[in-house]
Amino acid sequence: MSPDSHSRTPRVLSLPMTDGVRLATPRGRALLAATALGSGMAFLDSTVVNVALPTIGRELDASLAALQWTVNAYTLTLAALILLGGSLGDRLGRRRIYLLGVVWFTVASVLCAVAPTAEVLIAARALQGIGGALLTPGALAILQTTMHPDDRPRAIGVWAGLTGVAGVIGPLLGGWLLEFDWRWVFAINVPLAAVTVWLIVVTAPESRDEEAGGRFDVAGAVLGAAALGASTYALISWPDSGASVLNVTMAVLSVAAAVAFLHRERAAEHPMVPLSLFSDRTFSGINLMTLAVYAGLSGVMFFLVLQLQLSLGWTPLEAGIATIPTTILMLLFSGRSADLAKRFGVRPPLVTGSLIGAVGVVLLAAVGDGDSYLVDVLPGVTLLGIGLTTLVPTLTATVMASAPQHLAGVASGVNNGVARAAGLLAVAALPAIAGLSGAAYEDPELLTDAYRIAVGVCAGLLAAGAVAAMTLRPRVLTEPTATAPAAAQPEPEPGLAPVSAQAIRPPAAVPAPCSAPGLPPAHGC
C-alpha cells in the first residue's frame, strides 16, 4: 500500500469487498466461538496455573525456582516461536496450523496433568508454549480470512471481550478445581480443545498465501527464535538476579541474533518476515503505539495488584476481582466500539481511548492505605475499562488492515511479539525506575511511593500512545470494490461455500502479561 502523505482526506484501507461469513449467522457465531475458545483456553491456562502454584509446590516438593519456571517455561517458548507460528500459518494453511496448535497444546496439557515431578511439569509447560505459539497467530487470522469485511471489526471486538473473560474467571475456576486436584487445572483443557477442534473443522475453510514459494527460511526462523527467546529470558530473569553473567549473555545474544535476523531477512529471497511490512507507515506506527500502550497497561496492572495486596491488605482474590469492571466493559461494548473506526476513522478512537485510559491510570495512582474500593479504586478501573473498550478493537483492526492479506499470520506474530515484549519490559524496568528494591516490597510506605512513580510513568506511556496515534495517516475502515487477489483465496471445504481471505490481518494487539487480570488477553498466554 503506497501511502499518500499529502492527502487531507481519510484514506480508505484496502479491504476488498467480497463474500464472507456474516457474524449474525449461526456459522459466523460458531466460528467466532471457536477462535475465542482456542485463544481463551491458552489464556485461561496461565491464570489458573498461577493460582495452583502453591499446591503444586507442596505436592511435587518443588522449589521456588521450579515454580517460577513452571510459569516461565511456557512464556519463553511461546515468545520465541510466535513469529514462526504466524509464518507457518501463512505458508502451510492457517486452519491447519491453528488445529495443530490446539492439539499440541492439549497433548502438552495432558502431560502437565500427569507430571510426576516438577522437572517433567516444566518440560511439559515448555511444550505447551510451542502449542500456544502455533495457535496464537491463527485465531484472528482465521477470522480475517473467513468473516465478511463488514463484520470483521465487530467480530474482533467481540473476540477481545470474550477472551478477556478468561483472565477473570481463571482464578475463580482455578480455586474451584483445586478443591478436587491441581491436575484438573491442566486436564480441563481436553474438553475445551475438543469443542474448539470440532467448531473450527465445521466452520472454517483453509486459507494460505498461495504466492509463498521456494525453500522455507530456516535460518530466519532460527535467528528470530533466538532473538525473541534470549530477550524474553533476560527480561524474565533480570528483576530477580540482575546483571548476572547469564542474563547479560542472553541480552547480548538477543541483540546479536536480532541484527543477524534483520540482515538475513533483508537478503533472503523468501524471508520469513518480509521487512517490506514495516515500509507502511501505519503498520510501523501502530506497532509503536502498541509498544507504548501495552507497556503502560502491563505496568499498571502489575503494580496495582501489589499495592492492593501489600499496602491495602487485600487478599489475592479481592485484588483480582477489583479489575473485573474493565473486562465487563470490554465484553459488553468492544463489538460496538469497533464500529466507531468505520464511521469516524481510526484516529479518534485511538487517541480518545488512550487518553481516557491515561486519566483512569492517574486516578489509580492515588490509591493508598485506607482507601475504599467504591470511592478510590472503582472510578479509575472504570475509566481504564472505557479507554480499553474504545481503543483495543480499533487498534486491532488498524494493524490488521495495514498489512497485506497474504502475510496475515506473520503480521499477527509481529504485533503479538511487540505487545508481549512491552509487557515484559515494563515489569522488568518499572521497579528499577521507581526505586523499588526487593526489601521495599515488604514496606507499605516504600511500596506506595514507588507505586505512584511507576503508575505515573504508565499514565505517561498511555498518553504517548495517543501522541503516536495522532501521527498516523487518517484512514477509514471501509471496503473498496476491488476484489481480493487470487493468492489469498481460501480453499473451499466440502459442504462450505468459498470464503475470501481479506486484507485485514489480526494482530495480537491486545496482549499484556498473562498474570494481569482484567486486561485484554495476550494471545496464547
TrEMBL record:
Keywords of this protein's UniProt record, alphabetized?
Membrane, Transmembrane, Transmembrane helix
GO MF annotation: an example: transmembrane transporter activity
Tell me where on the tree of life, at the top rank, the source sits.
Answer: Bacteria
Domain Major facilitator superfamily (MFS) profile span(s) in chain numbering: 31-477
Question: What compartments host this protein?
Answer: Cell membrane
* Gene Ontology cellular component terms for the protein in this record: plasma membrane
Write out the transmembrane intervals.
30-53, 65-85, 97-116, 122-143, 155-178, 184-204, 216-236, 242-262, 283-306, 312-333, 345-368, 380-401, 422-441, 453-472
Q: Where primarily located?
A: membrane
Could you tell me which InterPro entries the record lists for this protein? MFS (IPR011701), MFS_dom (IPR020846), MFS_trans_sf (IPR036259)
Q: How does it sit in the membrane?
A: Multi-pass membrane protein
Signal sequence annotation: none
Recorded protein name is MFS transporter
